[in-house]
Amino acid sequence: MDGNPRSDETPDTQAPTETEVEAAAGTQPESVQDGEVARLQAELEAARRRVNELARGLQDLTKDREEFKQRITRERERMLDVERGNVALTLLEAIDELDLVLNSTQQDTSPVVQGVRMIRDSLLSKAQATGIERIQVVGRPYDPNVAEAADMEITPVEGDDQKVVAEFRAGYRLKDRIIRPARVKVARYVAPAQA
Fold first, then answer.
1. Averaged pLDDT for residues 82-109
2. Start-to-end CA span in the chain (Å)
3. In the chain, where the domains are located
4. Is the per-residue pLDDT at 21 higher than 50?
5. Does residue 177 contact residue 85 with C-beta atoms inside 8 Å?
6. Which residue intervals make up region (Disordered) (predicted)?
7. Predicted confidence (pLDDT) at residue 42 exceeds the cutoff of 90
8. DSSP 8-state secondary structure symbol assigned to residue 140
9. 177-180/171-174 β-pairing
10. How far apart are CA 186 and CA 161, in angstroms?
């Protein structure tokens, strides 16, 4: 009456004992159990292969994404360099014109010439600040990748053959790209005539 079961009463259902479970398991033929285990192992192996395949696919996708981001960044930098080079060409033409004025008035020390020289130097330093550098070619072997041969000078010195002896127009590069080749005079060795 107190709500607790009495020990003399037996419940209607009892948990099966270990021996009953073993007996019930023994009722299935052993070959059916082996077949079921083999099927479950095959399903487990197939699931593992699928998980590995998906993991490799995810790794490949992540790698491709990173490579794409790097490629886009490189392309953007290259395009910016091309645009910087295009803007620089206009600036370099102005510097060339100022150089022509200064070369024609080398002996003149008037304030106007000094002002032109200051403007030219300022423009050149601003161009160099953007990464543009002047290519030094005079006295070096002629390289058609960096300079255009505009004239030739005969030289009797064999060691001076194919060397740049004068520069008509300066050449410039931006990083590893030539934005304007130099225009130069190249020495050509000709053996002296024997008498």
1. 82
2. 147
3. 133-195
4. no
5. yes
6. 1-36
7. yes
8. S
9. antiparallel
10. 8
